[in-house]
């Protein structure tokens, strides 16, 4: 099976390989690409709790509010899986919760932002 450059970017992000992520972007990978099976580079990075790589993707212009196929936004994933540092980084970079966000996520976000 062969993979697209966009999928290879997601795999590089999953592997926490910043150098390979940089290479894939330089080769033309869409940093906002969302694969139905493999997710996205940002979500993979959030799930890995990799602050450095989240920061890199933000600096490259990734859309921090792009919903997945279920309507979930990256900040919701971070509130569920990642450290306060990742949550704050996303929020300070313009990430928003969706209108249907769970109340405990809203409370955790408030706590993360007030305890920084």
TrEMBL record:
Cross-referenced InterPro entries: Ankyrin_rpt, Ankyrin_rpt-contain_sf, NF-kappa-B_inhibitor
Domain of life: Bacteria
Signal peptide: none
Keywords from the named record: ANK repeat, Repeat
ANK repeats: 37-69
Gene3D superfamilies hit by this protein: Ankyrin repeat-containing domain (1.25.40.20)
SUPFAM superfamilies, alphabetized: Ankyrin repeat (SSF48403)
Protein name: Ankyrin repeat domain-containing protein
């Amino acid at each position: 099976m062969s993979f697209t450059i966009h999928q290879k970017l997601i795999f590089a992000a999953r592997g926490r390989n910043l150098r390979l992520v940089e290479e894939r972007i330089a080769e033309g990978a869409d940093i906002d690409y969302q694969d139905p099976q493999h997710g996205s580079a940002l979500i993979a990075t959030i799930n890995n709790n990799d602050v450095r790589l989240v920061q890199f993707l933000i600096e490259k212009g990734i859309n921090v509010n792009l919903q997945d196929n279920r309507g979930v936004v990256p900040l919701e994933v971070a509130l569920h899986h990642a450290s306060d540092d990742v949550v704050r980084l996303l929020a300070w970079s313009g990430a928003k919760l969706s209108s249907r966000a769970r109340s405990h996520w809203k409370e955790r976000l408030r706590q993360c932002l007030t305890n920084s």
